[in-house]
Amino acid sequence: MIEPQETPVLDAKGVSKSFGAVLALRDASLRVRKGEIVALMGANGAGKSTFVKILTGVLRPDTGHVRIKGRDSQVGSPAEARRSGVVPVYQEPSLIPDLDVADNLRLGNTRAEPFRHWVAELGIPDLRMDDMIGRLPLATLRILDLARALAAEPDVLLLDEMTAALPTDLVERVLRVIRQQADAGRSVIYISHRFTEIAALCDNATVLRDGVTVGSVPIAPGIEERIVEMMLGADLSHTNAAPLSVKSRPSDLPRLRLRGIGAGPRLTDVSFDLHKGEVLGVVALEGQGQDELFDVLAGNLRATAGTVEIDGRPASFRHPADAIVAGLTFVPGNRSQALLMPRSVRENIALPLVAELRKWGIISKRDEDARVSAAIERLQIDTRAQGEVRRLSGGNQQKVTIARWVAKGVQTLLLFDPTRGIDIRTKRQIYTLVRDLANKGAAVLFYTSELAEVRLACDRAVVIFNGRVVAMVEAADADEPTLLRAAYGLTEKAPV
Amino acid sequence: MTVTDTPPRARIGRFMAANPLVPLILLLIALLGLLEAMNPGIINRLWLANAIKIAIPLAMLAACQTLTMLTGGIDLSAGTAATIAAYVTATLSPLIGVPAAVAVAVACAALIGLVNGFGVAICRVHPLIMTLGTGLIATGCLLVYQRFVISTGTHIPDFLVWLGTGRTVGLPNGLVLFIPFAVLLIWGQRRTGFGRLLYALGSNENAARLSGVRGWQVYLSLYSLSGIIAGITGLLYLGLVKTPSLSLALPLDLPSVAAAVVGGTSIFGGRGGYAGTIVGALILTVLTTMLTLLHMPEGARRILFGLIILAVTALYIRLTDRT
């Protein structure tokens, strides 16, 4: 229905961007024609978010160009991008919480009339202009963001995970409005993890892998498999290394039993069992509720639904200290969240040993020395950079966060992406350590954003999509295509 | 100390960073040298004993600031708590006897600390605001107390006078209290669980929480302890000044913060310690003497004092912070 020779509304070509030594984008391109909805897809770390920032003027590309309506737009700032007709709706609401709706509109120079029209159209009829943004629920905020973008009458609407955190009835309305926009001649760049929406809504999909646009395909029935292949690339055979160990699980009482856990808008219904001696992987695309799941288990967040049982006894935590007493110890994904950067390796490792009120007295130097040096040795932490933890390399810092719990004694270890951003040698050491701990009777829950790690480190993996468990995969079957398909919700099986 | 090529300078930098006390002590010695040059013969045993005597209450009140600053807090009510303890002791001693008066006095100071702890730990009020507030409230209470207590005269217990002003073999008797106090604190900040937790909370409160530390327990204990230390300081200061007043230890409030900061404790928490604070208190005492000797008008003296504190702190951070 669209003439192919027509000038595209948005044409990005040969875009590259590096941050220091890290090349985030090498050769990204994207073409969007008038009235077209294009899905922009890519696995974790493919460079999607960098590309989006370049398209919306937040970042300048190192090389390449972005043309909007045929004009070479050196997009320099978000405001410039907006004027040229590209209007984004990001995953995080971009409204100011301490102002009311009307003030937020004034700040963004949004006209109230069209905004009101779109808010009603999108299914929020009872919004008052003097409602404080900070008091509105997340789903409403996302709708307001979208309504604001629509009121700006954009040529290109960029939607990042627009339907995440929305209830189903709102999702339907949003999708209908987007379709209408496209029929009226506007273009849409649609970023989503949900294949069903992409299949229902989009005309084309452009796929990024390792910072390169690897192709663009029209959406047709059965195209999901093709897209997954494109996201993974052809060199998959290399990563099929032999799994470290696959052992039979004991059939006794599980160490940890979750039933119907829900918390916040993202985590809705997660159930699984974790046994002693087992390393259970958790696989999920970004923002599918895994952060909340780990926070609930660590005692950092209260669950709003479901039950947790430890060794058959129901448990609920008001504070991380409760979880630690119950044997659940948590290594967060962000090292800076876990470490006392200006303090020594010793103080960091020994911290949980003095946390309880009855341990506030004199520290037994002998006991502390023994535990700390055993943990340092076990994890092979390079302590040549004596002194402050902030001077250690990322890998060594990560080891310190784990060593802390090794020194305390591990029963159930919750690892959230423990190998992100560290070198391959350290990664291997961490796999070995995790296996070793499991062999000695620990239970380990291991979230990883690197799919290849599941085979290397885990016995099986639970796949979470949209806040619920969609698959349970044995390590032997956990090749990347299987996991990625499951993570995109393409193989809905009955949860185990 | 002038170094021409970079490697020795880098080495000195590393050495200073590893031993943050060394530049402080060097500065103290330099100031003493300067003082002696300005006024030859001034530094003798009597002068030294006197300086130490004056520095002790300042160093003790600065302990309140050091401990709370390690967690990123501050205790601006310490001077008030000290004043109240002193005033209560002096007025109650004739009525209920010295031991009971001292007990009530320290309990009052502890109560101020407990209220601070409650506000900081449970209500999550910023320590600056909380301790400022309780300080003002407590000052008000002291005024009310002063009007209600029948003026039976004041009595300053003899042992406090002995402790505050007395000398034995040329050394101030205050050291009998101060040396064990300082040793306990310096040892305790590193080698007790409680001490470690102060540094942990000041470095990264969230990390401490994830490691199982219940912050409110620490804050509640910390501010109560700070109140008690302030109360004991008030008693000692009463013995030194020998006249109770409604603003006895208030002039020590801000110098006690300055002593901790000059002594290398970071106001943002996580770094520093009491040993530095002691040297900081000595430096401030020597500086005050020097400025008094300059025969300057009060205004100029204060301006100079403020400028020197800023300069010393800036220089010290440059010397010891190697990132």
Give a structural overview.
With 496 residues, chain A is α/β, with parallel strands linked by helices. Chain A folds into 2 domains: 10-238, 3-Layer(aba) Sandwich (Rossmann fold), CATH 3.40.50.300; 252-487, Rossmann fold. Chain A contains 17 helices and 20 strands. Chain A has helices spanning 48-55, 78-84, 101-107, 112-121, 138-151, 168-183, 195-201, 223-232, 290-297, 320-325, 335-338, 345-350, 365-379, 394-408, 424-439, 453-457, 480-487; strands at residues 10-19, 22-32, 37-41, 63-68, 71-72, 86-89, 156-160, 187-191, 204-209, 212-218, 256-263, 267-274, 279-284, 305-310, 313-315, 328-331, 412-416, 443-447, 460-465, 468-474. In chain A, the strands form 4 sheets. A 6-stranded mixed β-sheet of chain A has the order 6-7-8-3-9-10, sandwiched between helices. In chain A, strands 16-17-18-13-19-20 form a 6-stranded mixed β-sheet, sandwiched between helices. Chain A is globular. Chain B is an all-alpha fold and 323 residues long. Chain B has a single domain, classed as ABC transporter involved in vitamin B12 uptake, BtuC (Orthogonal Bundle). Chain B has 14 helices and 2 strands. Chain B has a two-stranded antiparallel ribbon with strand order 1-2. In chain B, strand 1 and strand 2 (171-172) form a beta hairpin. The longest helix of chain B is centred in the C-terminal third of the chain and has 27 residues, at 215-241. Chain B is globular, with a radius of gyration of 20 Å. Mean pLDDT of chain B is 90; it is low at 1-5. The interface between A and B is medium-sized, with 35 and 24 residues.
Architecture blueprint of SSEs:
The complex is a heterodimer of chains A (496) and B (323).
Chain A: E1 10-19, E2 22-32, E3 37-41, H1 48-55, E4 63-68, E5 71-72, H2 78-84, E6 86-89, H3 101-107, H4 112-121, H5 138-151, E7 156-160, H6 168-183, E8 187-191, H7 195-201, E9 204-209, E10 212-218, H8 223-232, E11 256-263, E12 267-274, E13 279-284, H9 290-297, E14 305-310, E15 313-315, H10 320-325, E16 328-331, H11 335-338, H12 345-350, H13 365-379, H14 394-408, E17 412-416, H15 424-439, E18 443-447, H16 453-457, E19 460-465, E20 468-474, H17 480-487
Helix pairs in contact in A: 4-5, 8-17, 13-14
Chain B: H1 6-18, H2 21-38, H3 45-70, H4 78-96, H5 98-121, H6 127-148, H7 158-165, E1 167-168, E2 171-172, H8 174-191, H9 193-203, H10 205-210, H11 215-241, H12 253-262, H13 274-293, H14 298-320
Antiparallel strand pairs in B: 1-2
